[in-house]
Amino acid sequence: MYEAILTLCLAAAGQEVCRDTLLPGYEAETEDACTAQLAARPPAADRAPLVARGAPRCAPAGPALAVTEIAPGVFVHVGAIAEPDAANGGDVANLGFVIGEAGVAAIDAGSTRAVAEGLWRAIRARTDLPVSHLVLTHMHPDHVLGAPLFTEAGAQVAGHAGLDRALADRGATYLESLARLVGPQAALGSGVVAVDLPVEGMGEIDLGGRVLALRAWPPAHTGTDLTATDPQTGTVFAGDLVFDRHAPALDGSLRGWQAVLETMRAEPHDRVVPGHGAATLDWPDGAAPLVRYLDRLAADTRAALDAGERLSEAVDHVAADEAPHWQLFEAYNPRNATVAFTELEWE
To answer: What sections of the sequence does the record tag as coiled-coil (predicted)?
Structure first.
C-alpha cells in the first residue's frame, strides 16, 4: 500500500522543525496509482502556520496503530498508561472506530497528528469506506489534538455542545504543553478543530445500516463529556467517563461524575471502552474500581472538611489508600483532591 506524504515545517525556538506528514485520501495499491490521484486532486497548498518543503509525493505506507476488533466492525487501539513524552509520542489514550455500510466513525483522535495518522492507517487497512465522522468524547488534549488529520479528510466532527468553547479557552495552552512534552517535531500538525455536529442532550450519526447514539452528559469527568453507543453490538465508547488502571482525572464535578456513572451502570450495555486502560470492560462490573475510588475521594474530602483541615493538609491523605490500585496515582490524585475539596466545601 502507498500513501501521499508532504514534508511540513515550522519555525520553533529559532530553528526549523520538519516532519513528513500523511495526506489522507490518496491511498493506493501502487505508487503510480497514488501519484495519479495526487495529480487528479492536488491537495490544498495553504498549510499555515506550517510551510511545505517540496511537493507532495507517494511512499510506502507508514506504521498503523495496533487495533483489536472487540465486536463486529468495532475496533479499539489501546494507548499507553503513561504521561505523554518523547518516547511514547503522545500515544496515551484509547482510540477506536466503527465501520458502517457507507462510512466510518473514528472515536477520538489522539494527542498528535502523528498518532491520528496511525489510526487512519489502521482504518484503511480494514476498509476503503470514507471516514465520515470523528467523535470527540471530551476536551482533553490526549483525545483531541490529532483531529486536523480527520477534518482534512472530510470527516464531520461531533462533540459536546460546550466543546468549542472549552477548546477555545484551553487549546493554545494544550498545544504549548504538547510540544514541550513530546517534542516540537512529534507535535507538528496537531491542533484544535471546530465541532460541526454539537450535541446537547442526545444525538446520532448514521454510518449506513449502523447508527451511533451520542449523548452529552452534565459536568462529570470534564464539562464536555460525550459517549458514543453502538446499539448493534451493545458497545459504548465512554471516553474518560470510565478509567481502567490509569488513575482517574477529575476536571469537572465529583458529584456529577458519581451521578453519571450511576445512570450509566443502570443501562444494559454489553461492553464499555474506557478512555484509558483495557480495550473493553464488562458492564457494569468494569466501572466498580472507578466508583470505589470516587466514593473514597468524596468520603475522605468530606471528613477532612468536617475536621476543619485546610486544602494543603487534605491533599496529602485524601483517597491515599487507593494508591495500590492505580498507575500514575501520585500525578493525578492530588489534583483530584484539590478539585473535590473546592467543590465539596460549598455543600
So the answer is: none
- Are 2 and 58 within 8 A, CB to CB? yes
C-alpha cell at 44: 490544498
Amino acid at 175: L
Q: What are phi and psi of 166, to 5 degrees?
A: -60, -40
Find the mean pLDDT for residues 104-111: 98
Give residue-wise pLDDT tens across range 23-78: 999 999 999 999 999 999 999 888 888 889 899 999 999 999 999 999 999 999 99
Its sign, for the CA torsion 163, 165, 171, 173, is: negative
Provide the residue ranges of all domains of the chain, joining segments of one domain with +: 1-62, 64-285
Kindly give the interhelix angle for 254-265 and 288-306, rounded to the nearest 10 degrees.
Answer: 150
Average pLDDT, the chain: 96
- Give the CA count within 13 Å in the CB-facing half-sphere of 84: 26
Task: Quick: pLDDT tens for 223-260.
Answer: 999 999 999 999 999 999 999 999 999 999 999 999 99
The CA distances from residue 336 to 77, 188, 330, 333, in Å, are 27, 31, 10, 5
Q: Phi/psi class of residue 328: alpha, beta or left (left: φ > 0; alpha: ψ in -120 to 50)?
A: left
- Contact criterion met (CB below 8 Å) for 147 and 155: no
Q: What is the pLDDT of residue 13?
A: 64
Q: Supply the pTM of this predicted model.
A: 0.96
Instruction: For the domain made up of 64-285, give the CATH fold.
Output: Metallo-beta-lactamase; Chain A (3.60.15)
